[in-house]
Write a structure and sequence with these properties.
About 25% of the residues lie in helices and about 25% in strands. It is an alpha/beta fold. The chain has one domain: 3-Layer(aba) Sandwich (Rossmann fold), CATH 3.40.50. Strands 3-2-1-4-5-11-10 form a seven-stranded mixed beta sheet, with helices on both faces. A four-stranded antiparallel beta sheet has the order 6-7-8-9. A hairpin with a 4-residue loop joins strand 7 and strand 8. The structure holds S-adenosylmethionine (SAM). S-adenosylmethionine (SAM) binds next to helix 3, strand 2 and helix 9.
């Protein structure tokens, strides 16, 4: 399938313990916005079946189940899944939620899902565009015709930097050392620190995780090649504003539909959003650096994205303009106009 099996970004048990403290289940603004967006555009599928990719400790699964969805959560880390099962035990007990240790690059949970979500940049942990394609194909197979896929990726502005962030709480300390490696196009983020265990003793943890900088144009093409349509790249604050320069945004929110009826593989990919020097499109190889999901997720619900000191460095949000949501045109089938040029 062309995926990179060697690399694993499954969160270690110690990091899972910290993650649980950093992002307790429920009360997550991004998931709220995703749900609102989905129910506004697909009111008929409200309360249906949902896939939660890279589900972590189950906070989005919990929120979805609380709103009446039946959820299957997938994560590569047995430790994260164990915590997700514990947090969602009342929904697991009544069969509303099920969790599986699985690789999102290659899974088969059957069909009939109305939506699939991957919040908080879980898919940045995949190493290559081939990995993303493999994941997108599995998601498409899982969705009903008309079903929606919503996920976010952090981009260049979030990833291409080196920084150290320290977070101190009463029972854990986290140090995040982010280092962007141009050769691999990844942000190598080392999480280390201490977490208090039962009995009051502190245990040291240490894990380096990788976030890949993808060119958003490559991601768009991969979605299209997997058979998704009505692809949007939206701002993270409202999920209503089409980003005019997604390559520069700190976080891009993708929505895509599995079309009803038959589809065929498009002959030509959409062009890169912004050609690099010499007119060559930016490749996904150099993954844009990132504010890590952990830091972003550490922001308490209700706080702005400036809640952490380093977060304010990110700032911006790419060049945005408020436009009615419309599909990204495929130049293979639609003539380019000044308007479409400006928005691609
Ligand atoms: C940013 S964290 C959790 C995000 C979670 N959606 C949330 O809102 O808290 C990313 C998760 O992706 C998982 N992960 C990394 N690579 C994966 C893969 N190939 N397949 C499935 N899960 C993966 C990690 O174990 C981790 O739990």
């Amino acid at each position: 399938m062309g995926t990179t099996r060697a690399l694993s970004n499954a969160y270690h048990p110690d990091l899972a313990r910290v993650w649980d403290r950093v992002v307790p289940p429920g009360g997550d603004l991004l998931v709220e916005r995703m749900l609102r967006h989905f129910e506004r555009r697909r009111p008929g599928l409200r309360g249906g079946r949902a896939l939660d990719l890279c589900c972590g400790t189950g906070r989005s699964a919990y929120r979805l189940a609380s709103s009446g969805y039946r959820v299957v959560g997938l994560d590569l880390s047995p430790a994260m899944i164990a915590r997700a099962r514990r947090h969602c035990r009342r929904f697991v007990a009544d069969g509303r939620v099920r969790f599986s240790v699985a690789d999102v690059r290659d899974f088969d949970e059957g069909t009939g899902f109305d939506l699939a979500v991957a919040p908080w940049d879980g898919l940045n942990h995949l190493a290559t565009i081939a990995d993303l394609k493999s994941c997108f194909a599995a998601v498409r197979r899982s969705l009903v015709p008309g079903g929606m896929f919503l996920f976010d990726l952090v981009g260049r502005e979030s990833l291409v930097h080196d920084s150290i962030v320290v977070e101190r709480h009463h029972d854990w300390v986290a140090m995040l050392e982010e280092r962007f490696v141009p050769e691999s196009g990844t942000s190598q983020t080392r999480f280390s620190g201490f977490v208090r265990k039962r009995g009051g003793l502190y245990e040291r943890y240490d894990q380096t995780l990788s976030w890949t900088l993808f060119a958003m144009a490559d991601v768009t093409n991969a979605l299209r090649a997997a058979g998704f349509r009505e692809i949007h790249r939206l701002d993270e604050e409202t999920l209503e504003v089409e980003l005019t320069d997604p390559e520069q945004a700190p976080r891009v929110f993708f929505t895509a539909l599995r079309p009803r009826g038959r589809w065929r593989i498009p002959p030509t990919p959409v062009p890169a959003d912004r050609p690099g020097p010499g007119g060559r499109a930016r490749r996904s190889g150099p993954r844009a650096g990132v504010r890590s999901g952990a830091v972003a997720s550490a922001i308490p619900a209700g706080a702005g994205s400036g809640a952490l000191p380093a977060q304010s460095v990110v700032g911006g949000g790419g060049v945005r303009r408020r436009v009615p949501i419309h599909p990204i045109p495929n130049p293979a089938t639609a003539p380019r106009t000044a308007a479409t040029r400006a928005s691609s």
